[in-house]
Amino acid sequence: MADSNSSFMHNIYSTIANVTDANLVPTFDPVVQKVIDILLMIFMALVMMALGCTIQLEELKRQLRRPIGMGMAMFCQFIMFPALVFGLVHALKPDKLDGIGMILLGTCPGGAISNIVTFWAGGNVALSVSMTFVSTALGIGMTPLNLWIYTQNWTDQSTVVPYINIVITLFLVMVPVPMGMLILWKFPRAAVRVAKLGSVIGFFVIVGVMTLSCYQYPRMFHSGWQVWLVAGLLPSLGLCLGFLMSSVFRLTYDVRKAIAIEISTQNVALCLTLIVTSFPKDIFFQIMIFPLLFGLLSSATLFLFAALCQFVSYIIKINQKRKEKELIDPLYPL
């Protein structure tokens, strides 16, 4: 089996090597990519600090003292989600390289975008930030383990886990968030303004990254139907999985939203680094297509989910005000 897989992958490498560069390599400007990476780290640090301005120390301690939600989210993130992706890949049988990209993404920890979306959706931000940190830390061991489990039948290429990028992600959570919490403690009024500003910055950062990704990698829009289907399904399946699992334990709705969002997001940047450092240049562009498309569709899905949560909260508030007025004045509806 191992020999046949090696032979099959060798044939793939040989076939792709014969494709002209114009058809294989997307519009890629290394200078633009470097600017994207630097700006993204700066703005994400500012956004994480702004999110810290919404987290009270007591709330954070309370979430850590009751790790039910945390443990369930990690189980879904590293056990159920990779298995779900693996099942979809085998059921739909996409192109071999696209399948590798799907599996690699499914083994990565959650992304920091979940924190800002949780804030927009009215979820528990303290739990969201905690889950991102723990998920990233566990990814140091769980990502290589899942890669070993799920990629054996798909590639004989040894994957290189980008530990430096994992450490950078941990840094973006560990340093800015406590700074924001300190601002909330010392200057509560200023913290409100910083949180609102960070929410706006986060929106434009996500939209900007999506736009630049489209410019850098236009070839992803010509992917096969299996790639589009899985990239479109996974964010919604992650939301449903997280919400249903947390509902079983009767967790509060703000916690359910935080867990659902955390499970539906993957660290796309980490996945892309893993691909670039692990595969030859003549094939890693093809493997990168699925994570890039997932990033776009996942962001769109999370935007819609946050908007839906805001709409539902608005309707609930209106109904509550109407009931309060009815109690005061029974003739109010008339």
From TrEMBL:
Compartments reported by the entry: Membrane
Keyword Repressor (UniProt): no
GO cellular component assignments: membrane
InterPro entries: BilAc:Na_symport/Acr3 (IPR002657), Bilac:Na_transpt (IPR004710), Na+/solute_symporter_sf (IPR038770)
TM regions (residue ranges): 38-57, 69-88, 100-121, 133-151, 163-185, 197-218, 224-246, 283-316
Organism superkingdom: Eukaryota
MF term (GO), any: bile acid:sodium symporter activity
The entry's keywords: Membrane, Symport, Transmembrane, Transmembrane helix, Transport
Membrane topology: Multi-pass membrane protein
Main subcellular location: membrane
Entry keyword annotation includes DNA damage: no
Pfam families with a match to the protein in the record: SBF
Family to which the UniProt record says this protein belongs: Belongs to the bile acid:sodium symporter (BASS) (TC 2.A.28) family.
Designated name of the protein: Uncharacterized protein
Naturally occurring in which organism (per UniProt): Potamilus streckersoni
